[in-house]
Amino acid sequence: AKKTAIVTGASSGLGLYTAKALVERGDYFVVMACRNVAKGQEAAKQLGFAADSYEVMELELGDLANVRNFVKKFRGKKYAKSLQSLICNAAIYYPNAVTPTYTKDGFEETVGVTHLGHFLLANLMLKDLVGAQDMGIDKRLCIVGSVTANTNTLAGQVPPRANLGDMSGLAAGLNGDRNANAMIDGDRFIGPKAYKDAKLCNILTVKEMSNRWHEQTGVTFSTMYPGCIADTPLFRNHTPVFRFLFPLIQKYITKGYVTMQEAGGRLASVVCEPQYTTSGAYWAWKGGGDQLWDNYWDNSNRTEAFDNKPSKEGGDMQKAKEMFDMSVQAVGLK
Ligand code: NDP
Questions:
Q1: Which helix (H) or strand (E) holds 245?
Q2: Which residue has a Cα nearest atom 8 of ligand 1?
Q3: Is the ipTM of this complex over 0.95?
Q4: How confident is the model at residue 303 (pLDDT cuts 50, 70, 90)?
Q5: Distance from Cα 292 to the centre of ligand 1, integer Å
Q6: 307-328: pLDDT as tens digits
Q7: Residue 287 — left, alpha, or beta (φ > 0 → left; ψ -120 to 50 → alpha)?
Q8: Structural contact between residues 67 and 117, judged by C-beta atoms closer than 8 angstroms
Q9: Which domains does the chain have, with CATH numbers?
Q10: What pairing do the DSSP bridges indicate for beta strands 83-88 and 54-58?
Q11: How far apart are CA 317 and CA 170, in angstroms?
Q12: How open is the CA angle 42-47-49, to the nearest 5 degrees?
């Protein structure tokens, strides 16, 4: 029987190519969890996925009731009992936004979708992973991170830097205006910083889930940075000049560029290959720019992954615990 994998945000970019890599292996049935079902179906058709290898299901991460409903619907599927991995990949990025937009539940949208929606999903679905039958491989839960959240790298040093501060904005419900409490740190809203903060929460969530539940459940929790896929629609809200230059800079100057195909293969491998069983790991690939100096321009070995060291804040387990507890409150898990 095929193993089941769920990929969020599988209608485009990294998520779509991760679904492709899993479908093409032949031993996975992929649930493409997409906010726009028709777009997901069209994308799967374009890439020629075999009809019996996937299903597109609706998942709107900016609506917690929709997340809960997704989980409920999934539980009614016959392939639910074969669940082996959950890949939380979807994200949004508003690089030029100076005023916040909000999810259905009233959270600032970048963190609301990229962190809180996935936070609820991952916590609910841990039960499904644990309860699924033994598929001959450990169960895995991966939340995609980013170099931009990791301030011990060159890319992570570009301001505005990720910083959760005292987390007073998150504690206050992340529903403020442009002046206060729409950012986790409670400070003034800055679109690109919200993305980096959300990615930092993704990394901290994985570390904390691993601490709380790896030993007890045997589930392997991980995060990863796939390299810079400089031409996905993630950058759709950037200026045309940026969208023209950024891929070229990444390809020819920093050499951190990876294609969607290569990045999708990397993310798929994290949930299905035997070398990725270190729980709590933050996987990165050489030449991807996810180290401060080492190998930044050395592009000679692109296949070898390593467990990357997070920034000081990304490895702060006290902060991880507090962020986790605040997120539990925010999404109403208790
Ligand atoms: P894309 O914009 O191509 O893909 C993002 C996906 O998330 C799309 O499928 C999108 O759906 C979905 N999505 C957005 N909002 C929601 C929502 N509210 N509910 C459900 N799904 C939603 O970007 P990428 O492929 O580049 O990004 C994928 C992941 O990779 C992200 O986690 C990103 O942080 C990470 N990443 C990307 C890098 C890069 O260089 N591109 C580098 C490092 C990490 P729709 O198709 O409907 O818009």
A1: helix 240-249
A2: 9
A3: yes
A4: confident
A5: 25
A6: 988 889 989 999 999 999 999 9
A7: left
A8: yes
A9: 3-161+200-331 (3.40.50.720)
A10: unpaired
A11: 17
A12: 90
